[in-house]
């Protein structure tokens, strides 16, 4: 009987030590390091603030280690968001992006794919005006040199790239033949006011995939995850849900 009790105690101690070791290993798993690239602050001339916030919330919920970046350049122009009209004085993209980042933002020139597991680009007209000139030249657009470099680096490193709203045009231009979504290729009674973007994506040699606002498209070959977000006129919670799926898709591909 004494021998049996001693064996039981030894087994219990061994099990407890195993649990402690496993708990330690679980808690020491490294969080995914994700770079978020901003393009200013405000839908008409910079980053779409709701999209950026949704991305940051979902990354935080998944315990990602996030750093934010933006190009240290002048905006294409500054827009009075109460009127939708250009303002007489311009603004700096990095300085404006600091509003979203609560000051913790670095120049985009400092970002390299070697330091991160994934990169995500929120939308807003800043992606089409400051990170590229898609707003002016459409399918003949040029991409900011650092933006192009970063997308190429992550792609060559087989690391996931997330883009939402208008930002998928960046991947369409830089990675020939990739698959992305900006929602629908038809306006559908005003639900998709920027539906013409799908045709521009096809002209650039990429493949547009029709998706609803709460859906994502995952290009497994190129590790590109996209969702329509505010390319659709819809409720904020649907934007939030679609972005959540994009973030989840990006993080899954980092493992």
Question: What does this molecule look like?
Answer:
This protein has 255 residues and is of the alpha/beta class. Helix content is 38%, strand content 16%. It is built from nine helices and eleven strands. The protein has helices spanning 2-27, 49-61, 93-100, 126-129, 134-137, 145-156, 168-174, 197-203, 236-252, and strands at 33-37, 65-70, 79-80, 85-86, 105-107, 118-121, 161-164, 179-183, 207-210, 217-219, 224-227. The strands form three sheets. Strands 5-2-1-6-7-11-10 form a seven-stranded mixed beta sheet. The chain has a two-stranded antiparallel ribbon with strand order 3-4. A two-stranded parallel ribbon has the order 8-9. Helix 2 (49-61) packs across helix 9 (236-252). The longest helix has 26 residues, at 2-27. The termini are far apart. Residues 14-28 have low confidence and may be disordered.
Q: How do you describe this structure in short?
A:
The chain is 38% helix and 16% strand.
Distance between the termini: 50 Å
Instruction: Report the β-strand fraction as a percent range.
Output: 15-25%
User: Percentage of helical residues?
Assistant: 25-40%
- Principal-axes geometry comes out as globular
Count up the helices. 9
- Report the structural category: alpha/beta
Task: Please trace the helix and strand order, writing H or E for each element.
Answer: HEHEEEHEEHHHEHEHEEEH
Low-confidence stretches: 14-28
Question: Strand count, sense and closure of the main sheet?
Answer: 7 strands, mixed
* Integer average pLDDT: 91
Rg computed from alpha carbons, rounded to a whole number of angstroms: 22 Å
Number of strands: 11
- With strands numbered from the N-terminus, the spatial order across the biggest sheet is 5-2-1-6-7-11-10
């Amino acid at each position: 009987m004494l021998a049996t009790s001693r064996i039981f105690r030894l087994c219990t101690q061994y099990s407890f030590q195993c649990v402690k070791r496993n708990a330690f290993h679980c808690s020491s798993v490294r969080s995914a390091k994700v770079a978020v690239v901003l393009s200013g602050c405000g839908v008409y001339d910079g980053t779409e603030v709701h999209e950026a916030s949704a991305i940051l919330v979902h990354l935080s919920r998944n315990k990602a280690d996030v750093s934010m970046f933006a190009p240290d350049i002048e905006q294409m122009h500054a827009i009075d968001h109460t009127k939708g009209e250009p303002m007489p004085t311009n603004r700096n993209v990095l300085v404006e992006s600091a509003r979203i980042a609560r000051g913790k933002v670095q120049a985009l020139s400092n970002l390299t794919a070697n330091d991160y597991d994934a990169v995500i680009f929120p939308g807003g007209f800043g992606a089409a005006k400051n990170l590229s000139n898609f707003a002016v030249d459409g399918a003949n657009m040029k991409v900011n040199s650092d933006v192009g470099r970063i997308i190429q680096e992550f792609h060559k490193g087989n690391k996931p790239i997330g883009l939402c709203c208008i930002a998928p045009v960046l991947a369409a231009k830089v990675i020939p033949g990739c698959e992305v979504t900006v929602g629908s290729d038809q306006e559908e009674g005003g639900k998709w006011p920027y539906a013409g973007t799908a045709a521009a994506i096809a002209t650039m040699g990429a493949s547009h995939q029709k998706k609803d606002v709460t859906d994502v498209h995952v290009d497994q070959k190129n590790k590109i995850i996209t969702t329509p977000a505010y390319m659709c006129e819809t409720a904020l919670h649907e934007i939030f849900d679609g972005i959540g799926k994009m973030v989840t898709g990006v993080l899954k591909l980092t493992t």
